[in-house]
From TrEMBL:
It catalyses: (2E)-decenoyl-CoA + NADPH + H(+) = decanoyl-CoA + NADP(+); a (2E)-enoyl-CoA + NADPH + H(+) = a 2,3-saturated acyl-CoA + NADP(+); (2E)-hexenoyl-CoA + NADPH + H(+) = hexanoyl-CoA + NADP(+); (2E)-tetradecenoyl-CoA + NADPH + H(+) = tetradecanoyl-CoA + NADP(+). Pathway: Lipid metabolism. Keywords: Fatty acid biosynthesis, Fatty acid metabolism, Lipid biosynthesis, Lipid metabolism, NADP, Oxidoreductase, Peroxisome, Phosphoprotein. Its EC number is 1.3.1.38. It comes from the Bacteria. Pfam families: adh_short_C2. It is found in: Peroxisome. It comes from Roseovarius indicus. GO terms for biological process: fatty acid biosynthetic process. Belongs to the short-chain dehydrogenases/reductases (SDR) family. It is an enzyme of class 1 (oxidoreductase). The gene is fadH_1. GO terms for molecular function: trans-2-enoyl-CoA reductase (NADPH) activity. This is Peroxisomal trans-2-enoyl-CoA reductase. Participates in chain elongation of fatty acids. Catalyzes the reduction of trans-2-enoyl-CoAs of varying chain lengths from 6:1 to 16:1, having maximum activity with 10:1 CoA. Has no 2,4-dienoyl-CoA reductase activity.
Length: 270
């Protein structure tokens, strides 16, 4: 997004859409998570943000304080099962859960031969098991509101990506879980989808060392463009809106065609 207010440029949803609705967003202090919170609160939602560090969460709170909805936050390591369950329950009791966005995640880039079992377990825990815990804990609240779940995945998750064996395995697991729960909970009116952003230049991918990597990712993207935080946020909000009523069990890739291109790889072939 180069011109004007980036959110303004991609905003298609109507003001006040989520008045009286509630959401939980993990990884809410930075990058994509902060962008999602900003859009949801802008549309009138009451949102609880989770993340380990309080400072970025407080910055998100500052950024949205004049907006129509509300934002509260809680420091929570999503890999701590009891803390995560308690945080979801507190949010559910405070404002209800019409939308759960499992966005917290991350990994390191390494060839499989350099991933130790502990490294593998850490990435699976953060990017798969924590999502199961959050989603299961949110179930009663989602059920009472006929709510939606959006799980942040990666572009190309179905084709594989060199340097990301652990993360792709976790996110493929999330896709399988998403489709299974979409079946199990369809009768409750709960919808679950995965979003696969392409390259989003957030703090995780913005330093000098990441520049060469970024150039390679953009070259491998048929539309040769980054995905903006605002585009991911608008699509997330759409999936929670009445217009997304029949959308469930899907992986929606918002990536300038990256998933049909040469592949987004974080290391070269051996
Ligand atoms: C297309 C776009 C792609 C996506 C972009 C983004 O996601 S942007 C967002 C990007 N931002 C982020 O992703 C940031 C968030 N990422 C993280 O916090 C970590 O990567 C984490 C998920 C592993 C955290 O787990 P934790 O706190 O439990 O970590 P820990 O320190 O305790 O280590 C556990 C094990 O992992 C091992 N290990 C670690 N690094 C490497 C390495 N480079 N190489 C090999 N191994 C590595 C470490 O050695 C240890 O194993 P050991 O030696 O005991 O056998
Ligand atoms: N940027 C990109 O190009 C792409 C990103 N994604 C995915 O989108 C999601 C957001 O990424 P992005 O905004 O770019 O990256 P960031 O690194 O900015 O965001 C990750 C967020 O997750 C939080 N987080 C990480 N670990 C934990 C934990 N154990 N408990 C609670 N919160 C945690 C972090 O907060 P804190 O450290 O304070 O806990 C941070 O706010 C991730 O799942 C990422 O893999 C997908 C495709 C492309």
């Amino acid at each position: 997004m180069k011109d004007g207010d980036p959110q303004e440029t991609v905003s298609v949803l109507k003001d006040g859409l989520f008045k009286g609705k509630g959401a939980v967003v993990s990884g809410a202090g930075t990058g994509i998570g902060r962008g999602i919170v900003t859009r949801l609160v802008g549309l009138g939602m009451d949102v609880t943000g989770l993340g380990r560090r309080e400072e970025p969460l407080a910055e998100t709170a500052e950024a949205v304080k004049e907006m129509p909805g509300s934002f509260r936050y809680q420091s929570c390591n999503v890999r701590d099962i009891e803390a995560l369950e308690a945080a979801i329950e507190e949010a559910g009791e405070t404002h209800g859960i019409d939308l759960l966005v499992n966005n917290a995640g991350g990994q390191f880039f390494a060839p499989a031969t350099e991933i130790s079992r502990r490294g593998w377990d850490a990435v699976i825990d953060l990017n798969l098991s924590a999502i199961f815990t959050a989603t299961k804990a949110a179930y009663p609240y989602l059920k009472s509101r006929r709510g939606a779940v959006v799980n942040m995945s990666l572009s190309g998750v179905e084709r594989g990506s060199m340097g990301l064996a652990h993360s792709i395995a976790a996110r493929s697991g999330v896709l399988g879980m998403t489709r299974s729960l979409a079946l199990e909970w369809a009768g409750d009116g709960i919808r679950l989808n995965c979003l696969g952003p392409g390259t989003v230049v957030t703090s995780g991918l913005s330093d000098e060392a990441a520049r060469a990597l970024l150039d390679g990712l953009l070259a491998a993207t048929p539309m040769h463009c980054e995905t903006s935080v605002e585009e991911v946020a608008e699509l997330t909000a759409f999936l929670a809106s009445p217009a997304g009523r029949l959308m469930t069990g899907q992986l929606i890739q918002i990536d300038g065609g990256a998933h049909i291109g040469a592949g987004l790889h974080m290391i070269g072939a051996a």
